[in-house]
Amino acid sequence: MRKLFNSIKLSMGAIALTSLPTVASAGSNLSQNDYVGVSFWLISIALVASTVFFFIERDRVAAKWKTSLTVSGLVTLIAAVHYFYMRDVWVETYNATGVGDTPLVYRYIDWLLTVPLLMVEFYLILAAIAKVPAGVFWRLIIFTTLMLVFGYLGEAGLMNNTVAFVLSMLAWFTVLYEIFAGQASKISAENASESVQSAFKTMRLIVTFGWAIYPLGYVLGTMMGTGDAATLNGVYNIADVLNKIAFGVIIWNVAVKESE
């Protein structure tokens, strides 16, 4: 009964969360030709559903994995709230001008909160099976944050976009080194079970190829000016399904396997 009650509370909270931005922008109707707007709506609801799923599934896994699922739920919850407002920005400008406006500030606020949390997941799954030095945690957090800060400064025109891009990439490469050849990678190889190693390897592939979409968009949209807003936002939205929802599902899967 307690689990059922908690599930009902989470579902009601998700419904209320979904309805708030809709009330605030009741005059904005989604155009049937606005495919990017449709993608904003689809992912915002998918993020809510994922949040409910991850929080409910906490009761299914062992105690040492609960924090990992909580963080996965927080990532999708934070992203959902931002997507509600990003979709409103896009839909309203699309209806008014026929061209949607890139919700740059909302997107970077979302990334600044969720991307470091995603990197924390590497630390958490290793901490569930071995003693992990605090340095691993701080390197993942600090360099991921620097990557995003420099990216925003470049895209917002607050810094030379080429210099900002180079500094952002250096921070990203430092993160990749940590999870492919650094201390985090070594701890996984030496201490993790087969299922944890598999999850770790899949997660770092997402950080490599899934995240590569964002600097590509930066180059096309900010540095070259050849990427149109519709294409960039559509691709970013699809990428967030992989980088946030699928990333969390991988963690859920290994948590369930290790708990059983």
> What structural class do you assign from the helix and strand content?
mainly alpha
Q: What shape does the CA trace take?
A: globular
Instruction: Tell me roughly what share of residues is in helical segments.
Output: over 70%
| Amino- and carboxy-terminal Cα gap | 23 Å
Strand content: under 5%
What's the helix-strand series?
Answer: HHHHHHHHHH
Residue stretches low in confidence (pLDDT < 50, at least 5 long) are 23-27
Number of helices: 10
**Major β-sheet annotation:** none
How many β strands by DSSP? 0
Determine the mean pLDDT: 86
- Provide the gyration radius in Å: 19 Å
Tell me what the structure shows.
With about 260 residues, this protein is mainly α. The protein has helices at about 1-25, 35-55, 65-95, 105-125, 135-155, 160-180, 185-190, 195-210, 215-225, 230-260. Helix 2 (about 35-55) runs antiparallel to helix 3, helix 3 runs antiparallel to helix 4 (about 105-125) and helix 9 runs antiparallel to helix 10 (about 230-260). Mean pLDDT is about 85; it is low at about 25.
In short:
The chain has helices at residues 2-24, 35-57, 63-97, 104-127, 134-155, 161-180, 183-191, 194-210, 213-223, 229-259. By secondary structure, it is an all-alpha fold.
SSE layout:
Blueprint: H1 2-24, H2 35-57, H3 63-97, H4 104-127, H5 134-155, H6 161-180, H7 183-191, H8 194-210, H9 213-223, H10 229-259
Helix pairs in contact: 1-2, 1-3, 2-3, 2-10, 3-4, 3-10, 4-5, 5-6, 6-9, 8-10, 9-10
